[in-house]
Give the backbone structure.
Amino acid sequence: MHKRLTLLLFTIFCLAQGLDVSAQSYLFQFEDTPLLDAVEEFKSRTGIDVVYSTDLLGGFSSSCTYHGSVAVEAIQCIVQDATVEVRVISDRQIVLVLADEASVGPDKARGSIAGIVFDSRTGESLYGANIYLPDLSSGTVTNEAGFFSLPGIPSGHHRVKLSFIGYVVKDTTLSTGSKSVILELNPTTMTMDRVVIERSTLIRSDLALFPGVISMPVRRLEQLPPSFGGKDVFEVLGWMPGIQRAGEVTGGLLVRGSGSDQNLYLIDGAPVYHPWHAFSLISTFQTETFKDLKFYRGSFPAEYGGRLSAVLDAELRDGRNAEPKLLAAINPLSARFLIESTLGSKSSFMLSGRRSYIDKLIGRKHPVSDGAGRRDTLRTGYFFYDWSAKISFSPHTNSRLSFSYYTGRDDLDLRLPFDLSLDFSSWLRPADLFFEVDQDWGNRLYSVRYQHLASDRLFLTGTAYYSEYSANESVLIHPTQSASVTSDYRVQLQDLGARVDADYFPSLSHQIRAGFSVVDHRFVSSIDALVSYSPSLSESLTHRGRVQTREFATYIQDHWKPSEKLHVLLGTRLNYFGSGNYFRVSPRLSIQYVLNPRWLILRGSATTQYQFLQRIRDRYSFLYDLVSSRWIPSDSTVVPSKSRQLSFGGEAIPYPWFKVSAEGYLRIGNHIILPRDEFQSKNGLLGPGIDISTLLGQYTRGNERSYGIEIGADLFLLDWQVLLAYTGSRSENRTPELRNTTFRPSRFDVPRSFSAVIQRRVGRWQFSLSTVLRSGYPITVPIARYYLTDPVSNEQIQFFHTPEINNGRLPPYFRMDLGVGYRFGFMHADWSAQIHVYNIFNRRNVINRTFDPSKENFGLNNSLGLPILPLFELEMQL
Amino acid sequence: MRILLQITLAGILAGSIAACDTVQPSKVGTLVVESFLKAGEPLPDVRVGRTYGVSKGIAANQGIAEAEVELILDGVRIQYEPVAMSPGLYRPESRASHLIVPPLASFELFVRTPDDQANASGSIPPLILLDDVEFFIPERAIEAVLVDTLDIGLDSLDLALNAQEGFIYPIQVTLAWQTVSGLETTANDYWIETRLEPLSRFSSSLIDFFLLPQQVLPEESIEADENGQVRWTGVYAVPVEAVDTPLPEHALKVSLLRGDQAFAVFETSRDSPERREPVSNVSGGIGFVGGIAIDTLRIIVK
């Protein structure tokens, strides 16, 4: 009777929805077929999503023959031998629940529901999906592995609403007591021929429970305008409030005015110390290679440490696609590919590569000769590359093992005459006076991660990694026939680390995460340099340095949900750093209060962070630390840097297509390493040497403070997508040890910054306009002039008086870029062609300014930014 | 609730707009004091002036005529008097004009003007004397790069690497002098500055960068022989037209200076006026007041 009623309701429902229920005819014939297989076949042949717990159907078989046009009758036939009930949720979804179970009652015993949520299309686990129990007005969010647990709930069936921005909301019913459930969500898509367009906000606000968190769906990032090197995570981050690049197109990532070395970059749990290619033009973080990205500005949970300013935690794709995927693309700087596929039912892999190709176009080696028979080989080699690979193995649904590998390197190999010009023929000859530059730098890391659902309340993650950053800088210079400079400089940082993290769910209102880690740091540096001024006069510099230390950390944090409106993340982190014997405690507190889920969600945090490794570079010599920089550990003379930060903000989503957020912060930093002499820059050959104490002599400890307000808006309506960001902030520092007690603007202090990205899709076309308008960087402007006399010649030498650093500012920076993309299908593949015009107004921004006191007035000389540049990218997906 | 949100947003907007730039214009007219007390020589003049606006001409007068200048040399107070017709220049009072700056003496200089005051202190180094100057001149000129700047900027795509090649005589010069003896000195107590300066400058700064026409170094970093004599060798360049052009006759000024660490910092920080101003040792002002020992030779090289 019940089944008949269901069938009747389903038929009425389908008719009401205008579905042509009689258009399809189904034939199912099963004979003692495992029920799970039979249901899966039903799903694949009808296209109807069937939600169920494997525990419900496991152990049953199906013996059924159905020939008809009503899908619900077919599924009822298939599951007739199991004690399940068929519930029709929608025209495309059916839920199987345990038959004849009473609804949830208050007297029931307690149980739990745990499981993992996957993307139905890619098969990848979803981090941040909401699992909500409407009857209990409670819920949780999946962790990085897609795992969730709802402990301590009444035993029985529960209505569950599964949601995730960018995915179709799923309503289902789950039962307590089962082991773990597998849930799948379907992406929201708008299909147009072979082109799939996905809609979602840029930032997953459901994960941004606390101030400063940016958690970005990679699928959304891939749709943003490409940069010089293709789709670049760091370029996208630059569109967010409070984040900017140090240079016009180069330089590190600056978060809230901090130094670029205060950011922690992680790939599958392993640190990346130099995440840049092409002299910081592009980053090593290619958007397509990642499955998930989290970026923390200023405040980060207790599980992260070792940096003051920001954390980028990226997870490589694991290739768990239902279908094999091949991506290939080319742009002016590089060509890249990505392959991912499953390997049987339990394994999958991802492999991606990228390489610049300009050296292939102009050649790396050029044999040359002259009329006298002299031969030489000039070299014009430069390239960079990345390899990323990941293999995942899931022996069963409760555990996963993955191996990740990343390597990226830049290689510069030049041997050129000094008098080269753009006329190649003028220098393609053997040269007596030449320079050789042989430099390479990069990262390599290995990571092994094991994730295991130990029980319905405990999830464990173990990670072991090896990360290496190394740089080699070799030069040979012959400026005269009798003078030469040779130098071979090497620097290396090796990390061998392991960490264990545990998520424990004691109740619905508490989620406890705890863990510990140990890292062995090794720092190696060496130089062999010889400067020959004449055949009989030379100076040499030889040094070997090696430092090793260990770092231990443990943390515990509780995500406490005292009510549906209030979330509290309370944690603390304890660090021990071997070099210098430093114990440091970093308390972290973040609070979210939902005043109104539509109009105002308030967030605040108070955190303390420590940094034990400092990145500094020599400020005197041209023979080392040119492209690389050196990380040095804290020791008895270098106290760990400390930062305390307060953040407070709010978010409103007045309409589903519009979100606005604002956040204010105050950050105080102590023991920050700052240059002792701001005016000193590289101006010599041998310099003072590479010994760490010598290097530290060029720096002093200082204080920094920054404060500001960040406003962001995200609008997506119909075919439009708009991202707006405004930052009003100040970043200042001082060096009391040098008796500079007044805070001065820091090197990259930007009081105001506005950026916007506007995109519109029209059919297969996509148009984008992006712009940035910000204050110019601080510069030191002379306020007066005077002269001094040479003690030997009595010659008067003019100087500018610059008593205060950064007392002026470059003109405001403004740039607008235009992008046009076209998607099409060709040869059974999806293609995308994009033209990106950099700086469409050809505005030559002033990026640096110098002054010459030997000339009247300022003797001003401006360095200008890049002119208008058209760029292209062609991408193919199979 | 909507009103609350609007109020919050309005507050945020007002706060963001108020994020003002705190860069303040600085005052002009800082006191400039300059004097080199040379060991074994008469008391020097003291120049007292003031910085002036960058928009004024290079030759603008900056002297202060109404300052009080006092030097305390080894405990002896010496008043300075303004020099007529030379605003800003001060000479020792007439009764002290015969005094010689004694090596190893300590000194303090005070300058007071109606608006501000400055002072500097230090000590006089031991005398220094060039014992010997040796030359090594190659028989033929050699090829060399002749250019003043090598500038590669990635952001701006400014690629200025268009050097010209020419010919130079790299001339090696060795200076010898007696090191400080009989004193308890440390490595940083005395610094030496050496200079090889052709009186008409031929050479480019790029050539000088790869040669060694001048150097500032701690005196103790140079090893002395058994007689206490130390030697320093440098190289300067004389450009010529062709490889077979004979070395042109030219005058060379060889200078040897000794000073303290403040002098070394001052000298090494004043070689790039377009990049920075020198590091001063004057409290309450800028400039330099220091004790030095100096010996120079003018040599005709042919």
In short: Residues 15-26, 152-160 of chain B have pLDDT under 50 and may be disordered. Chain B touches chain A through 92 residues (CB under 8 Å).
